[in-house]
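Q: Here's a chain of 677 amino acids. Please give me its 3D structure as tokens.
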Amino acid sequence: MLTRRLADLSGPFFDPRKPFRNWSSFPFSQIDLPQPPYVDEAQLRTGLARAKLQLHALHAQGYSGIVLDNLAHLTAFDGPGEAVYAPESPARLRALAYRAAFGELFDAAAALSMEVYVTSDMQWSTPELRCAAGPMRAESTRLAALNQRAVAELFAAMPQVRGLVVRVGEAGGAHNEGDSYAGHMIYTTPAQLRGLIDSLLPVCEGHGRDLIVRSWSVGIGALGDLIWSPQRYAEAFGGYSSPHLIVSVKHGPADFFRHLPPNPTLGQPGPRQLVELQTRREYELFGLAPAGVARLHGAALARAAADPQCLGFWAWNSTGGWGGGTATLGTTGWNLWTELGSALTAALAHAPSLDSRAFVGTWLRDRMQHATCKMQNSTALPDAFAAAVAELYLDSEDLIERGWYLGRLPQATAKIGGVHLSPLLWVWWMRPTASLPIWAYLTHAAGDWRAALEASEAAARRADAHARRLEALAHAHPQIAQMTQIAEPSRTKEGEVAFVVESARYLADALALAHATRALMLPLLAGAWLGRAPTPHALRAAACEARSAIAAHNARWAGRADFPALELHELEQFVALLERRPRAVWLQARAACALVRGLRSKHVGEGVRLAGAAGLTLALIFNPPAGLALAGAAAGLALAAPMRRRMVGAALPWLSRRLNLLPSMFFEAGPSVGEWV
């Protein structure tokens, strides 16, 4: 039995009326204010009320604890030691305000016998902390002492907190909240991570609390492969035997993707483990469309239940990704699809042999009937509607795997360097990419790319059939038709029915756009692999078809905050370039295939040199400013590290746009480019 069953609880605190982009943590950027009282008390109180409702729902589903961000916003440095914050410091006053609000939520959790964990990216900082600590270095004894003070203060000020969850593999860049709260990737080797553990674990042990260390990493530094490498895992965690130290490991060897094997670090000797799962599927349209987890989580939890190293799991209902829309949030911070995924995951943890089809059917029938009972003069919702919703959810797992992913990639490369490759490289959250190296890799990895394209088209047709079925039922039954007129789908119980109808159409349209993107890119790159150049006329015709698909998608979804259109700017720019200069795009595609060929054959240097020389030549011929930028970036690689980071950080985004090198989202999300250089 997996006794530790945790769920995150950030979603209820988002305000859908305010802009939000980064779901990677609690929405402090919405709530923090630059002037007194330094927090938006109204949003905080509203979020608190919603969080309490979700807390009770999680308890009813079978969860034993919650996880909430973060140490930086809960540390006032009011304990013993040298003053860090002035009495009226915004950071100190915010910490006191968040402690008071979260204390109510944590008390409610304690009343339900639920555990509470607080997260922290390491190394976090504020301007005052940076002043007190000096240089942000892993070996700094001053910084270690300040971290120990912060953790001790957390446990003393908030006795409901059962432990601290630490992540070192992703910080800085888009994770920063301006200069007020920043992150630094300074723990980048196993020795540095062990040093951090050795400084924090005694504090946790002294207070009888847990230290949970996440193994998540993004390929940076010597710890870049910690998430999937048993060797690196042993270097980081081998020899620890404290019952207060736990390692949290994602179920696969990369992020929350499908079509991956089990994480090879699960079950490794050392501290006990938690398995991380995600019920609001960030890479699968952020919960705006159904993305079933019955097979995915059922298999992961069955393995976990059979593993004596595993204490339990941690389900993410709110956290992760860049993008999404307000329909993700529902009435209490999660919508129907996420709540169903959360309930199903907890049920599978309790009974791995659960009949998922029966569970989903019963859960949705009860939920749909409850929605109609809340309406005045309503009649019972037809069972046929609930059954159609259940069929959509259960089928969505296969639709996503075939229509959003490219299915299984028979010739995929497991990893390059320190990164285990995702099978979903063609789209980054909501933004399809026109990166030619990525499409060159995917075309080769798919093997029979024509069969993959046919499967994609079939999935889009099936999704459209589900949407049409639900739309027909809504039209045939007045009470459903009434619900589909709700102004904000999923913001009320009645609106959940409208949300389901709209969500089904959103999935169908997203899969149609995915297919149109593949119909453009796969034939182009397949020809580039073989050196069979299509005529400029054929390339322009393909671009015209893609432009029509983009226009159709935008006509329905552009400008909507609840179900936003896919972010198609990068794809639109590529289509425009293909229409204007098809020969240049063809030559860039050939260079991309040369690069991928070198990487796949493990002759990395040869591949990079070949593609780099080809890319530079083509850039100088077809786009002289880009060529000069590429030459400057190449020369910059020989410079000292600080100057190299600045030069590449400035040149690479500009260059990438012109040569279709990297997904544009790479320069917006996650750590800054400088951390990768």
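Q: Can you summarize the key feature?
A: Residues 586-676 form one domain.
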